[in-house]
Amino acid sequence: MATPIVSNEPVCEIDLEAEGKHTGYVRIQFSSDRSAYGWQPVPIMSIKNGDGPVAVVVGANHGDEYEGVSVTTGLFRDLNVEDVKGQIIFLPALNAPAFYAGKRTSPLDESGEANLNRMFPGVQNGSPTQMICWWVVNRLLPKVDAVFDLHSAGKSIDHHPSVKIRLIGDPEKDALQMKFLELFGAPLGIVGDRVTETTFSSATARREIMYLSTELGGAGKIRPWIRDFAFNGTKRCLREMGILPAAMALPDPEHKVALKGMQSGDNYIFAYEDGMFEPVVNLGDVVEDGQLAGYIWNLKAPWKDPAELHFKKGGVVFCKRTPALCEVGDTLFFTLSDYEG
């Protein structure tokens, strides 16, 4: 008989069918110089109580986005088994290697810059980041009704806080997702009309799974006011799904949401030269077409007039670069326009 050839896959230490509250790791095999037969730990927790909807709450899809880590771990610690009808699965640091390194991207893959949210659907026996994506797509998503993917902007970018859904085409699910935008409590709500092929969102879209994502600030820090409404907002959405009890007392949404459409090319301002970026507007400001956005100063000839930056397309200032130093190709700003659906 021919020798069987097998392919390894990530191993989840906890039984996701088990009732109760459980903690452990998804083990991502990684043979390194430091640990020849080792594995990378991706934390996973579950609260299951009988039959009902299943939701996944995710933090650190990018490793330097900390708000989602705080919300995810806080929810698990706060909720008891008797609070739940169905199941909540918690992945507080999905891109764990990047999170442990304090970087947006994983340093373990061959490139040293593996962006988990650009590597779906993954590879079963690939690089560590590919294996995480593969496990999510093939072992997790078949169980799931909704994903709450709690992003922020990481160290290099800051955002005016937002919540985002993308329409599936199922009237019942889309109505619930639009309700999520109201309940979450963010100032901005983005209605998505497309997904990028290799993202987590695309993996859920292929299965018509409800998918809520956020941009909870960023700049590599946690702001209490943003963390608090995201914590309450996730609970309000889980309550609306019927996973948390209707009688659970929660504050009303902290902000009345303003609905916005997805950005397009003209919403962006990019750097076309190296230098020092000086913005003259703030996140959340409403700007007009052609309005002055800021300057780029020449570092080695500061006596020269700076390059002026202007918004091509007005709207609310949603995104702004955090570091002052910039290089050609860096995103400096982008705006959002009103949703017209």
What's this model, at a glance?
The protein is α+β, with helices and mostly antiparallel strands and 341 residues long.
What are the SSEs and their pairings?
Elements: E1 11-12, E2 20-29, E3 39-49, E4 54-59, H1 67-78, E5 86-91, H2 96-101, H3 128-140, E6 146-150, E7 157-159, E8 162-166, H4 171-184, E9 188-192, H5 200-205, E10 210-215, H6 224-241, E11 258-261, E12 268-270, E13 275-279, E14 286-287, E15 292-297, E16 307-310, E17 315-321, E18 325-326, E19 331-336
Parallel strand pairs: 4-5, 4-6, 6-10, 8-9, 9-11
Antiparallel strand pairs: 1-2, 2-3, 3-5, 7-17, 8-10, 12-19, 13-15, 13-18, 14-17, 15-16, 17-19
Helix pairs in contact: 1-6, 4-6
Descriptive account of the structure:
The protein has 341 residues and is α+β, with helices and mostly antiparallel strands. It folds into two domains: 11-261, Zn peptidases (Aminopeptidase, 3-Layer(aba) Sandwich); 265-336, OB fold (Dihydrolipoamide Acetyltransferase, E2P), CATH 2.40.50. 20% of the residues lie in helices and 29% in strands. The protein is built from six helices and 19 strands. The strands form three sheets. Strands 1-2-3-5-4-6-10-8-9-11 form a ten-stranded mixed beta sheet, sandwiched between helices. Strands 7, 12, 14, 17 and 19 form a five-stranded antiparallel beta sheet that branches. It has a four-stranded antiparallel beta sheet with strand order 16-15-13-18, with no helix packed on it. Strand 4 (54-59), helix 1 (67-78) and strand 5 (86-91) form a beta-alpha-beta unit. Helix 1 packs across helix 6 (224-241). The chain is globular, with a radius of gyration of 21 Å. The mean pLDDT is 95.
